[in-house]
Design goal:
mainly beta
Length: about 110
C-alpha cells in the first residue's frame, strides 16, 4: 500500500504500462512526463484530487483509469492527446474537457 508515488518510477522511460491501483496516492509528480513511452496508466482507487499538467506531454498515452479517486480538477491540456481514453466515476465527468473519450463505470471501454 503506497501513499506516495515512488519518484524512481519516472526513471523507467521505456515503461509502457503502469498500475498503481488500490493505493492511497494523493498526487503524481511532475516528473511523470519522463514516461514518454507510457501507453496505459491505471490509477483507480487512490486519493488523487488532480492530475499534473505534465501528463499532457505523454503523446503515446492511450488509456488512463481514474475510477474511485476524489478528483477536483483535470488539466484542459490532456484534450490534445488524440488517442486518449479515460475511465472515471460518472460523477466526475463534468471535470473533463468536451471531446475527450471519457467512460464511466460500468460503461465498456473499447
Amino acid at each position: 500500500y503506497l501513499q506516495i508515488f515512488p519518484i524512481e518510477i519516472c526513471y523507467l522511460t521505456n515503461l509502457e504500462f503502469l498500475d498503481i491501483n488500490y493505493n492511497g496516492i494523493e498526487s503524481l509528480p511532475t516528473q511523470i512526463s519522463s514516461l514518454t513511452n507510457l501507453r496505459a496508466f491505471f490509477a483507480d482507487n487512490n486519493q488523487l484530487q488532480t492530475i499534473p499538467i505534465q501528463i499532457s506531454s505523454l503523446t503515446n498515452l492511450e488509456l488512463i483509469t481514474l475510477y474511485g479517486n476524489p478528483l477536483r480538477s483535470i488539466p484542459f491540456e490532456i484534450s490534445h492527446l488524440n488517442k486518449l481514453r479515460i475511465r472515471i466515476d460518472g460523477k466526475d465527468r463534468h471535470l473533463f474537457p468536451p471531446g475527450l473519450r471519457v467512460y464511466s463505470i460500468p460503461e465498456q471501454i473499447n
